[in-house]
């Protein structure tokens, strides 16, 4: 990653790695919609910079309707996917409240 991405984003990506190892991530259109609508108290959605505009607008619209915080990253999808040990992932939600808290504190 080098200095290409901010220290803050590197920290967020490391939290994402912890979430992936703990199997506490949500992705996929239906998975994310269910997550956004769920009754879980703390939530956060992460959107890489090169996510398609239709997907990005759809996710942001749902986040605003259900008052879910979202973070638009400067990192591309490939960096997010690598941090998660997956391929071709564009938007991710986190289900672990401690990791969510860490991400939100880092982002403030």
Automatic annotation (TrEMBL):
It comes from the Bacteria. Residues 11-97 form the Ribosomal protein eL8/eL30/eS12/Gadd45 domain. Gene3D superfamilies: 3.30.1330.30. InterPro entries: Ribosomal_eL30-like_sf, Ribosomal_eL8/eL30/eS12/Gad45. It comes from Petrotoga miotherma DSM 10691. This is 50S ribosomal protein L7. Coiled coil: none annotated. GO terms for cellular component: ribosome. Keywords: Ribonucleoprotein, Ribosomal protein.
């Amino acid at each position: 990653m080098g200095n290409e991405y901010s220290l803050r984003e590197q920290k967020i990506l490391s939290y994402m790695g912890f979430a992936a190892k703990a199997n506490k991530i949500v992705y996929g259109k239906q998975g994310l919609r269910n997550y956004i609508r769920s009754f879980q108290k703390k939530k956060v959605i992460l959107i890489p910079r090169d996510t398609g505009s239709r997907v990005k607008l759809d996710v942001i619209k749902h986040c605003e309707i259900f008052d879910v915080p979202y973070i638009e990253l400067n990192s591309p999808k490939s960096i997010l996917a690598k941090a998660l040990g997956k391929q071709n992932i564009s938007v991710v939600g986190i289900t672990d409240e401690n990791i969510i808290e860490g991400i939100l504190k880092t982002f403030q």
